[in-house]
């Protein structure tokens, strides 16, 4: 019991008190972030080791005897794996926002490039016109382009972003091969638009399939009352004479 109390206190202290590496002095210079910035971790994932330790200690204390150690190890491992794989709600919402904004970002970027804007100016225009999670990831890209960085390396790095990878790969390939950037971005916009329409149609069909069972259950009582019951009563009346 004393061990559990000590572990619980340590876990709470770890979760409540921020780590020293996360504290940035006000006077410290802020570096320009890369194409992607690390997403914030949720409480469960940030303290996964303490949750696993506490769960394992609790399971061991609950089971007791020779099975205490195996039970604690299994429980702690399961909690650690589950806590590591659970995606925080904030991260999931931002990821979905970037995925929804990507077709609009590509369309506006193609229009800006078509008007003769430089890639850095076009990306900056997109970030100012469509503020949001996608723009936050593109701001460092525009900054690096303005500083004279290698466009191929910059767009290749953007290709490592899970949501903005299509844009990064398309621009990196165009820069590497010397193909017109405007045409590549416009084709990507058309492809993303077709893919978005297909996803909407798939979701609509899936909703129709899922709604069939509840709708059938709702109509079943009326079918029994208006169809089966009168027929059964009529047959019973005919048989009994």
TrEMBL record:
Q: Which UniProt keywords apply?
A: Cell membrane, Membrane, Transmembrane, Transmembrane helix
Give the Type II secretion system protein GspF domain ranges. Answer: 107-226
Major localisation: membrane
Domain of life (superkingdom): Bacteria
**GO CC annotation terms, alphabetical:** plasma membrane
Q: How does it sit in the membrane?
A: Multi-pass membrane protein
- The protein in question is named Flp pilus assembly protein TadB
Q: Where in the cell is it found?
A: Cell membrane
**Parts of the chain that traverse the membrane:** 49-82, 211-233
Q: What is the lineage of its organism?
A: Bacteria, Bacillati, Actinomycetota, Actinomycetes, Propionibacteriales
Pfam families for this protein? T2SSF
Keyword Mitochondrion appears in the UniProt entry = no
């Amino acid at each position: 019991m004393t061990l559990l109390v000590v572990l619980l206190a340590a876990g709470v202290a770890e979760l409540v008190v921020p780590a020293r590496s996360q504290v940035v002095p006000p006077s410290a210079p802020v570096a320009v972030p890369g194409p992607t910035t690390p997403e914030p971790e949720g409480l469960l994932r940030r303290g996964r080791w303490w949750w696993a330790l506490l769960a394992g200690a609790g399971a061991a204390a609950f089971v007791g005897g020779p099975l205490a150690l195996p039970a604690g190890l299994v429980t702690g491992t399961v909690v650690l794996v589950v806590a590591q794989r659970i995606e925080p709600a904030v991260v999931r919402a931002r990821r979905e926002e970037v995925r929804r904004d990507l077709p609009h970002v590509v369309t506006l970027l193609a229009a800006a490039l078509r008007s003769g804007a430089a890639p850095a100016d076009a990306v900056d225009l997109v970030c100012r016109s469509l503020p949001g999670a996608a723009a936050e990831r593109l701001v460092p890209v525009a900054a690096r382009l303005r500083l004279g960085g290698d466009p191929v390396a910059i767009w290749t790095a953007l290709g490592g972003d899970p949501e903005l990878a299509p844009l990064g790969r398309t621009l990196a390939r165009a820069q590497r091969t010397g193909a017109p950037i405007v045409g590549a971005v416009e084709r990507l916009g058309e492809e993303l638009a077709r893919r978005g329409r297909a996803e909407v149609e798939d979701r609509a069909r899936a909703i129709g399939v899922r709604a069939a069972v509840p709708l059938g259950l709702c109509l079943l009582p009326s079918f029994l009352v208006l169809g089966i019951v009168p027929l059964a009563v009529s047959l019973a009346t005919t048989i009994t004479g």
